[in-house]
Design brief:
heterodimer, A: mainly alpha, MetI-like fold, two-stranded antiparallel ribbon, 15 helices, 2 strands, about 75% helix, globular, B: mainly alpha, 2 domains, membrane (chain A), transport (chain A)
Chain lengths: ~325, ~290
Amino acid sequence: MQAVDSPTTRPAPPGGGTEQRAAVPRPSRRRRADARVPWLLALPTLVVLVALLAYPLYRMIVLSFQNMRLRELLTGLTPSWVGFDQYEKALTDSTFWGVVGRTAGFTVVSVILSVLAGLGVALLMRRVHPKVRLAMMIAMMFVWALPQLVAAQTFRWLTDSDFGVLNYLIDKLPGVDYANHSWFVNPWQGWSLVTVLVVWAGIPFLAISLSAGLTQVPKELLEAATVDGATSRQALRNITLPILKPLLTIVTTLSVIWNFGLFTQTWVLRDGHPEPYYQTLATYSYTQAFGQSKYSYGSAIAVITVLLMLGVMVFYIRQMFKIGEVD
Amino acid sequence: MAAARQDDQVLTVGRSRLGTIFANTGGVLFALVMIFPVYWVLNTALKPRDEVMSFRPYFVPAHPTLDNFSSAIKAENFVEGLINGLVITLLAVAAALVVGFLAALAIARFAFYGRKAIILVILCVQLVPLLALIIPLFLMLQKANLTNSLIGVSLVYLMLLLPYTVWTLRGFIAGIPKELDEAAMIDGCTRAQVFWKIILPLTGPGLVATAVYGFIQAWNEFIIVNTLNSPAKQNLMAWLLQNQTERGTAWGPLMAGAIITSLPVVIFFLLIQRNIATGLTAGAVKG
């Protein structure tokens, strides 16, 4: 995290800071009182964050080095210290690596598809009739407004094996028998469905942000390129995309963070009991802790998850600093 | 309107008529595919049971009925969920606004040592997957006897909303020209008066937008409340999840329940959508 601020990379003032500090006149009483004001204002926020975020984070790390089970939970006994056992257990378990691979694979595929779809829709919105654009906007707004849980339940119903409308429609295709087809028996089909759900729900944010970004592309540039004989594909690659790049980076990073933490969609589609091949890091950690009362093992998995995401998070924050949003 | 038409002309330079027809068709198709699941929720909720449970789906209800809605409302724990949800959400949002506004003021209006560190913390915290913290939070709240209580969940939600609240309000406060503060102070206003008479009224719309967004976040949450509390102490979202697992195939009432549960947030969302669209990526789009 310090890498973002990178105070260490700045050249140190010659002779150290002490002399300079001595030169500054002592602040008056009034000034010193002023210096306390911002900290007093920030204090309640800091207290909440320490009590409900930093401390739980610390507890989670401690817990991951212990062995907390149902017995400790019920009796209130201090769980025994087991060192790196939980981590060793996870890192030598092929099930765990399967979960990691699945989560990473899903994240890569779903983010690529979402961003491409979002970009495509954003570009499409520039070409269509204003009325069509309005229809697209309205459709996307409703999808965006839908709570995650409701969106997932809707897909559960659309793909219901007996009365789902999706099977009915696919069954209409010549030579295809999809009556009573169950979408979740074959994990590839099930995951395709999860991906479609995530991409569908993700498009509004991506397309609307990117289309806002597209309005920043100077029309003169595109015109000039057209006059100079550039094809629309060349104009897209050499003008539009470079200008859009900072925004694309941000929305892609956010999508990675969100999709990596996939929980609601598989949870709802699998009725609260995701089969092993529908487990991702978030659901796996949760079910280990609350399904099997392995609170420490669940914590170790959560710690590993956060560590895996740290790189992406640092990247995001750097980007925010770079574009000058943070001053 | 004239400007818009001109824009269209510029953009269609060198583009074929066929391409435009193609694009418009694609746009309409896209809108239809996107909205279809939303339509299907509505369609299902309005159909009587035999039309829902039909191997040949009814694309329009033949005998529209509101039975599903009354059946959803009469389901166990609906009223509790509604009240609990409102209490938890309003408590969390109100607390987040008060606490967050002060911090936002500090970041936006004061230059002080440690300011950048606070900004960094706020940004990082927004990215921490909160689900990862649910195990220690559960154990902590259990020890403090705050599981199965509305206060416990509200506290967690306060933490959930706070970083975003600080960050957005910071933006709104920073948007008020500092010269206004200075002019008022030269005219003899104290810092407190500047706050009450200038900053607070001018941040009003921002406060409303932030509150509404916070409401949506807290209202939509169900995993934490489902983990910490028993069904009678949960919110409407968790109630909806409970309904799915308990009454697996009753899709009509379930979809009606989904509409009732999401109606407030959908309305709120549509009201403040402009803010949400730019909130997450503000700065990346300079305009």
